Inverse folding.
C-alpha cells in the first residue's frame, strides 16, 4: 500500500479534483501491478492510497515515465501545498468488495 499526502490550496480544490479524475486515475490504471486507488480528504489536504500487487510494483511507480509526467504536471498546476509525504506500507491481509461505489 502506498499513501501520498499533500496540502492543497482549498480555493482550487475543484481543479485538483478534475486533475485527479482526468489525469491521475487513468495514469494509475495503466501502471503494471496497481490493484486500486482511493482519493481521499484529510484535515489539511488530500491523500491518495494505492494498492499494489507487491512491493516491487509499488516501488517501480517512481521510475514510470507516465507517473513522472503526471507529477510534473500536477506540480506545475500550482494548487498543491506543503507538506507532502509518501509512505510504502506492507499489507498482511486484505479483502476488497467488488462494488465499492
Amino acid at each position: 500500500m502506498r499513501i501520498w499526502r499533500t496540502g492543497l490550496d482549498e480555493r482550487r480544490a475543484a481543479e485538483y479534483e478534475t486533475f485527479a479524475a482526468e489525469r491521475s486515475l487513468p495514469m494509475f490504471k495503466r501502471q503494471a501491478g496497481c490493484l486500486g486507488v482511493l482519493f481521499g480528504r484529510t484535515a489539511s489536504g488530500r491523500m491518495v492510497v494505492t494498492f499494489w500487487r507487491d512491493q516491487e510494483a509499488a516501488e517501480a511507480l517512481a521510475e514510470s515515465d507516465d507517473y513522472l509526467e503526471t507529477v510534473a504536471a500536477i506540480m506545475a498546476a500550482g494548487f498543491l501545498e506543503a507538506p507532502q509525504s509518501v509512505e510504502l506500507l506492507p499489507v498482511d491481509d486484505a479483502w476488497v468488495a467488488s462494488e465499492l461505489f
About this structure: The chain has one domain: 2-88. The mean pLDDT is 95. The longest strand covers residues 34-42. The beta strands are 2-8, 34-42, 45-52, 80-88.
